[in-house]
Amino acid sequence: MIQLSTNLFGGYKIRVQVVKQRRNVPRTPFFPKLEDILNTRSGSKISRFFRHFFEKGNLKSLVGKNLAAAAIVASITTPGLGYIPHVQNATFAEVGVLSVDQPLTTDVHLQYPVDLVTVNQGYFSYHPGIDLKGKVGDQIRPVMDGKVIVIENSRLGYGKSVVIDHLNGYGSRYAHLSKILAIEGQDVNTRTVIGEVGNTGRATGPHLHLEIYHNGAKINPLTFLPPRSN
User: Fold this and answer.
1) Where does a domain end: 26, 52, 77?
2) CB-CB contact of 110 with 144 (8 Å)
3) How many whole angstroms separate alpha carbon 24 and alpha carbon 22?
4) Which pick of 56, 128, 159, 174 has the fewest CB atoms within 10 Å?
5) pTM here?
């Protein structure tokens, strides 16, 4: 038989006796199960022990009683265990998490510039707009009322493109058009056909590249466009 003992803070001591197990003798765990700890009646010895342990260690205020119990038991009963086991109905420390159940809304209301909406590529720092799938010749309409301020015809970059100035510092660009049906200075609304989908400029296939500006800065069009139904 081997005897081991160690002192704990608060005047507690743990003494362990290691003996050779006899056959047909039921095994009694050295440490109580986690469920027993969590369900222990108030006032019992084990309850008083763990209450004192948590208070002395200030663990209760940091991570919650049950989470601390799970960590302690796991570290003692399973050497090398590097995670905290799942405890059903356990109470954990509250964490500040922002939950948004509603889509972002603004005072700006836009429409999609094409009838059939499929986003081929989203908005990224290296792609400051969205690509909408389309066929050559599909009609394009402004996302908002405004005035055409730039018409471009290039074999590179945006290819054939239209830039429209809207109210309150907003603007929009429609790029890679196969045909431009608007002119600079023209007042347009959401029913005006300003061009047709194409693949001019730096494009890998027919699509509409849409950019939205606010006070000169490019912003994510999907922030303002309505949710897609498809």
Assistant:
1) 77
2) yes
3) 7
4) 56
5) 0.54
